[in-house]
């Protein structure tokens, strides 16, 4: 199958799974912003999603997309290094016109993945998983997402760690978004620079949205709580 047997096919899978994750980040950021304006409204969203069949199906699809993206990222990186051979060790100067994020996508991806595991442990496990498994002793109110946000971001350590995570996501998106569109053929000489500009703006909006939630809840429950 060309999606797995060819370099182009693997890049297509990488791009599609990446764009899928971009859509999820957009939804998740928008959902989190609700908590800034109304914690009750945010809890209503959490209750609506909860352990319903569509939320479970979405979680499984998201998990599959995330795993595929990571696996293909390592696969393509190892393939590129193998193709370069000894030449990969002979380059000491940074190539001109190559973004820092482009050269460090794998490292950024690993940072994002590690923090994602932390995020799952702090939120998904205490909310949807608890509701699914009935482990109320861990979290008696699994649908009270606002309480979990306030408890987490009131801690300055977690507030800083999450901001670092969002910076890594920003760098990853600034290159990954336009690169995915280019791989899928949605780019030409005119649109290449446009997509790069759009990617930077979009990534910044995502970063600011997530960061705003951290800062607001830290100030509200950490500094002033």
Q: How would you describe this protein?
A:
- The protein has 225 residues and is an all-alpha fold.
- The chain has one domain (2-223): Fumarate reductase/succinate dehydrogenase, transmembrane subunit (3 helical TM bundles of succinate and fumarate reductases, Up-down Bundle).
- 81% of the residues lie in helices and 0% in strands.
- The longest helix has 35 residues, at 189-223.
- The N and C termini lie far apart (57 Å).
- InterPro entries: Cytochrome_b-558, SQR/QFR_C/D.
- Keywords: Membrane, Transmembrane, Transmembrane helix.
- The chain crosses the membrane at residues 12-31, 51-75, 105-125, 157-178, 198-219.
Percent in strands: under 5%
Instruction: Name the helix and strand elements from N-terminus to C-terminus, one letter apiece.
Output: HHHHHHHHH
CATH homologous superfamily?
Fumarate reductase/succinate dehydrogenase, transmembrane subunit
Choose one word for the global shape: globular
Uncertain runs: 88-92
Transmembrane segments: 12-31, 51-75, 105-125, 157-178, 198-219
Keywords: Membrane, Transmembrane, Transmembrane helix
Protein name: Succinate dehydrogenase / fumarate reductase cytochrome b subunit
Organism: Bacteroides luti
Short descriptors:
81% helix, 3 helical TM bundles of succinate and fumarate reductases, mainly alpha, single chain, 225 residues, Cytochrome_b-558
């Amino acid at each position: 199958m060309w999606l797995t047997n060819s370099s182009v096919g693997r890049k297509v899978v990488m791009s599609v799974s990446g764009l899928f994750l971009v859509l999820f980040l957009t939804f998740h950021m928008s959902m989190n912003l609700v908590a800034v304006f109304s914690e009750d409204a945010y809890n209503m969203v959490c209750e609506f999603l909860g352990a319903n069949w569509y939320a479970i199906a979405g979680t499984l699809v998201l998990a599959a997309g995330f795993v595929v993206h990571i696996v293909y990222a390592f696969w393509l990186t190892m393939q590129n290094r193998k193709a370069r051979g000894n030449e990969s060790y002979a380059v000491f100067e940074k190539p001109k016109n190559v973004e820092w994020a482009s050269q460090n996508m794998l490292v950024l991806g690993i940072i994002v993945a590690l923090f994602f595991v932390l995020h799952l442990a702090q939120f998904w496990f205490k909310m949807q998983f608890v509701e699914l498994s009935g482990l109320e002793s861990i979290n008696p109110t699994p649908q009270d997402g606002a309480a979990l946000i306030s408890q987490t971001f009131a801690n300055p350590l977690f507030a800083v760690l999450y901001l670092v995570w969002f910076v890594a996501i920003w760098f990853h998106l600034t290159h990954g978004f336009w690169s995915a569109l280019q791989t899928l053929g949605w780019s030409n000489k005119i649109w290449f620079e446009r997509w790069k500009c759009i990617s930077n703006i979009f990534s910044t909006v995502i970063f600011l949205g997530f960061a705003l939630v951290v800062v607001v809840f830290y100030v509200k429950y950490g500094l002033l709580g």
